[in-house]
Amino acid sequence: TRIGLALIFAVIMATFWANSTNDTHGLMTQASLLFVSVGAAVFTTSVYVPTLIEERPVFLRERHDACYRVISYVLHKIIIEGFTGIFAVLLFSPVVYWSCNMSDHIYAYIFFNLALWTLNFAAVMLTLAVASASPNVEIAGAAVPLVMTLNFFCGGFMVLADKIPVWWKWLYNVSYVQWGFSALMVNQFEGQVFPQCYEMNQSGVSSQAVMMNIFSQGLGNGMLTGQDLMEATCSSGHEFDRSMLTACSVSQVAAYDSMCLQSAGLSILGGNNQCEDLCVSVKGESVLDTFGLAGRSKWQSLGYVAANLPVFCLCFYLALRFLKHEHR
User: Fold this and answer.
1) Closest by alpha carbon to 218, among 245, 247, 188?
2) What is the pLDDT of residues 87-134, one digit of tens each?
3) Which of 126-135, 161-170, 221-230 has the lowest mean pLDDT?
4) Confidence of residue 60 (pLDDT cuts 50, 70, 90)
5) Which one of 48, 87, 93, 309 has the fewest beta carbons within 10 angstroms of its own beta carbon?
6) What local confidence, expressed as pLDDT, does residue 268 receive?
């Protein structure tokens, strides 16, 4: 069931995110894909709740009959779930990764698989811990999604890191979902440059208005910096005076201050509209900075996800060892 569910999720996601572009909107779409990939690795573990509750009477009976110890049952679950997760990830990753225009570096793809497997493994153990601590399937079925959803709210995508209320900051800092999303984002965007060219001669729109729209949108969503604009080029080879752009503040560009941009615009466009396509480059670090992830290491982020594994395994063991929900 779990392996088949992973493949179904992969196909559905591919139909939504396939062939995503590398423009500013496409880069945000890629970020959403990575967050949903985290969700696919985490929320699919809810299918284990009924199975674990159904196994409980058998576990209690055989434990009282001294057939095995609690630690044996826990280790059995850890080994089985770990290997099952490998097959699920190997089915899910190639469908999503290669159809959705992700990084074409093979090492990035390998890391993507490793990160999803670690996330899924951590989510499974957390699900087993919460379900084991629940007295019945109804409470477990409510508690597991609640815990997962709280982690998602503090995952750094739906609510950006600097906007999370102070009373939830602690969960943001420890959330394995947040660190998993961080690892995937850094893996995808760190050190990457995404060139984007815009046609200046658009029907019914002045070239200067097109130029100002490019600059204002890029600066407004944080994808472009003043330095990026200074490094803009024309596909036709036309050179312009970039120093003109330094006279305009970000707020002036975003407000379409034509007086401020007039000199820069004329220089870019040239007397005879020489700049046919204006090209700017969005740096991957700008995307990471949008989500408060600039300067992070993907391996360190993955390490924080992995650090949750022994904690969740211990909680799973303690719940089985000391919480008595049923009597023989």
Assistant:
1) 245
2) 999 999 999 999 988 888 999 999 999 999 999 999 999 999 998 888
3) 221-230
4) confident
5) 87
6) 54
* DSSP 8-state symbol, 272: T
Note whether 24 and 189 are within 8 A (CB): no
Taking the model in full, what pTM does it have? 0.84
> Are 73 and 320 a contacting pair, CB within 8 Å?
yes
Q: Where are the beta strands (DSSP E) in the chain?
A: 193-199, 233-234, 277-283
User: What tokens appear for 186 in the block?
Assistant: 């850094």
Do 6 and 88 touch, CB atoms closer than 8 A?
A: yes
**27, 297 Cβ separation under 8 angstroms:** no
The DSSP H or E segment spanning 228 is helix 226-230
**DSSP one-letter code for 291:** T
Q: Cα(211)–Cα(224) distance, rounded to whole angstroms?
A: 14
Spatial CB neighbours of 99, under 8 Å, sequence gap ≥ 6 = 14, 17, 18, 19
**Cα angle: 75, vertex 77, 81; to 5 degrees:** 120
And the tokens for 89?
């990830």
Please name the amino acid found at residue 297.
S
In 3D space, the residue among 35, 17, 285, 25 whose CA is nearest the CA of residue 159 turns out to be 35
Helix (H, G, I), strand (E, B) or coil at 152: helix
Q: How far apart are CA 170 and CA 199, in angstroms?
A: 46
Q: Compute φ and ψ for 104, nearest 5 degrees.
A: -90, 10
* The residue to which tokens 């049952």 are assigned: 73
Question: Across 128-285, where does the E strand assignment appear?
Answer: 193-199, 233-234, 277-283
Give the neighbor-by-neighbor strand order of the sheet with 277-283: 193-199, 277-283, 233-234
Of the ranges 47-61, 215-229, 246-260, which is most confident?
Answer: 47-61
CA pair distance 311, 317, nearest whole angstrom:
10
